[in-house]
Amino acid sequence: MQHLLDFIHEHNLEQQLFLVVETPEEAISLTWRRQPGADDQWEVQSATGEGEVELVHYGDLLDHLEEREVDLAAVERELRAIVLTNIAVADVVLRDGRQVLGNEAVQRRLFELRASASQLSAAQQLSEPEPFLTLIHGEAVQCSPRTGRLKIVR
User: Fold this and answer.
1) Tens of pLDDT along 49-84?
2) I need a labelling partner for 110 at 20 to 30 A (CA). Which of 6, 26, 87, 90 fits?
3) What is the separation of C-alpha 82 from the centre of its chain, rounded to a whole number of angstroms?
């Protein structure tokens, strides 16, 4: 289900999302807002609006909800509905855009966007440090140098 939250975080068209889910004790509200520098946080609060607001990173949200004994199947249904709605809206925009701008212009722009995304992904992979040595698991015996237990990775 984390992949749904990742998709929403990256591709949601709305500026704000709001869900109410049940715990054994009470209903809680989950709110996400697209805000520069803070859009990876969900606000978790009692659905009555009483009590403090907890900020939970979207990567930790499912664990947080599981600890509070929320019905995760119901949460997944809601997240799927949000993603499917975004896909339907994007499909309408794409279809109408082709009618207004022409298929060739839209296809060219989609190609450019995909190429840019590929270049960004490649650049990110280049910036990640690579290990110089990799441990090759073997028997726990003392060995002399250059026995193949460690190898240089370039």
Assistant:
1) 888 899 999 889 999 999 999 989 999 999 999 899
2) 6
3) 14
d(CA 12, CA 38): 15
Give the relative orientation of helices 72-101 and 103-127 as an angle to the nearest 10 degrees: 130
Nearest to 68 by CA among 125, 119, 24: 24
In a domain, 112, yes or no: no
Domain tally, the chain: 1
pTM, to two decimals:
0.66
| pLDDT reading at 9 higher than 90 | no
Determine, yes or no, domain membership for 25.
Answer: yes
Angle (deg, nearest 10), helices 2-11 and 72-101 = 40
Q: Can you give the residue range of the structural domain that contains 56?
A: 2-100
Residues 121, 109 contacting (CB under 8 angstroms): no
Quick check: is 148 in a domain?
no
